[in-house]
Design brief:
This protein has helices spanning 16-24, 37-41, 44-53, 71-83, 95-109, 186-205, 211-233, 238-254, 261-273, 277-293, 299-314, 322-332, 349-358, 371-381, and strands at residues 9-12, 30-34, 58-62, 88-93, 134-138, 150-154, 161-165, 173-176. It is α/β, with parallel strands linked by helices. It folds into two domains: 9-180, Rossmann fold (3-Layer(aba) Sandwich); 185-381, Dehydroquinate synthase-like - alpha domain (Dehydroquinate synthase-like, alpha domain). It is globular and about 60 Å long. Bound molecules: fe (ii) ion.
Length: 382
């Protein structure tokens, strides 16, 4: 017996934001909009506020989330929640405001300290109270956090990124409004989109029985191969932007199966050098796939690699091997390859490999990997 979970209500397309506001009319008195200062400056918070106001829904903006959110961001957000007597949360932004909003939601009805809810220590079992509604409005197309059930916060006591997980942390409604991503610059469009691509690919590669997620992952890849070059070339192409938003949500839906070695290799780059997460995946993915191509694979793994290459072929973007197809695709998106070009000293490759090996994502990799394999991929990507 297995259990399959699929996400939440998704409002998609032009008018999705107005659609959310309409649903909140008469339901929500005052929403706390959790976002960051950049999005306030870009006018996106005001766009949300005015849609709400037009339907008699009051709101207050909390813009104190850091790019890698810390415990203090949650505390300040919680203070704003209480002082303003809010009754719903709206997360607006990329992964960071989403993470922060999810954990504010948790702490709105659970007593402190936050650290006791650490998922790695079984903290999910203490999450047992009803929580206020949360609506998620992504402004990037990458993490898919709007359909995710966990939030990551750096705890004060340990300084470590800590995961808070519970099925009920998933937003009640995800709002995919293409125009909200139209202002992303091309390099961010590429980096975030490649994160979504990596989610689909790694989830599809995981060896577990989940045909629903596998179908979603393949279609996500197909959408990305078609839409990302268009969104990269012209950010105002709302059809391409919409397809990328959908693909990002699909990637995160699929990766409930797990991820793989590419994410394990990418995480230490962000931890040590603050490399953008999507860019870190981009810098490592082609060499990780070349490593897989060099290994003896069973028939099932070979079939999965071949299926991904078929999708490149159907898009007219295939090169001789899957790793080369991906490298070609990323090159066309302006990915500046070479870890050496991203402040990574050669002497760091061995400690990076150690960190990557300790990361848990590769536990579900398509084939088991060793410490020396991590070093080999970093060396090839350097
Ligand atoms: Fe990712």
């Amino acid at each position: 017996m297995q259990q399959f979970n699929f996400p939440t209500i998704i409002l998609f397309g032009n008018g999705a934001l107005a659609g959310l506001a309409e649903r909140l009319r008469g339901q929500v008195r005052k929403a706390l909009i959790v976002t960051d200062a950049t999005l306030v400056k870009a006018g996106l918070a005001a766009t949300v506020t005015s849609e709400l106001q037009a339907r008699g829904v009051d709101s207050v903006v909390f813009d104190g989330t850091h790019p890698n959110p810390i415990e203090e961001n949650v505390e300040k957000g919680l203070q704003a929640w209480r002082e303003n007597g809010c009754d719903a949360l709206i997360a607006l932004g990329g992964g960071s405001p989403m993470d922060t909003a999810k954990v504010i939601r948790l702490m709105a009805t659970h007593t402190g300290p936050l650290a006791q809810y650490d998922d790695a220590k079984g903290g999910d079992k203490l999450i047992n109270q009803p929580m206020p509604p949360l609506y998620a409005i992504p402004t990037t197309s990458g993490t898919g956090s709007e359909v995710g059930r966990s939030g990551v916060i750096i705890l004060r006591a340990t300084g470590k990124k800590t995961i808070f997980f519970h099925p009920r942390l998933i937003p009640d409604i995800a709002v995919l409004e293409p125009s909200l991503t139209a202002g992303l610059p091309p390099h961010i469009t590429a980096a975030t989109g490649i994160d979504a691509f990596t989610h689909c690919l790694e989830a599809y590669f995981v060896n577990s029985f989940h045909p629903l997620a596998d179908g979603i992952a393949q279609e996500g890849i197909r959408l990305i191969l078609k839409a990302m070059p268009a969104a990269y070339a012209n950010g105002k192409d709302l059809e391409a932007r919409g397809a990328m938003q959908m693909a990002a949500a699909m990637g995160a839906t699929a990766f409930q199966k797990g991820l793989g070695m590419i994410h394990s290799l990418a995480h230490p780059l962000s931890a040590r050098y603050n490399t953008h997460h999507g860019l870190a995946n981009a810098l490592l993915l082609p060499d990780a796939l070349a490593f897989l191509e060099s290994r003896p694979l069973d028939a099932a793994a070979k079939a999965k690699m071949a299926r991904m290459q078929d999708l490149f072929r159907e898009a007219g973007m295939a090169k001789a091997t899957l790793s080369e197809s991906c490298r070609g695709f990323f090159n066309a998106l302006g990915v500046p390859f070479g870890l050496r070009n991203h402040k990574v000293p050669q002497a760091d490759l061995a400690p990076l490999a150690q960190d990557a090996f300790e990361d848990t994502c590769h536990a579900s990799n398509i084939i088991p990997v060793k410490l020396e394999d991590m070093l080999a991929v970093y060396t090839a990507a350097w």
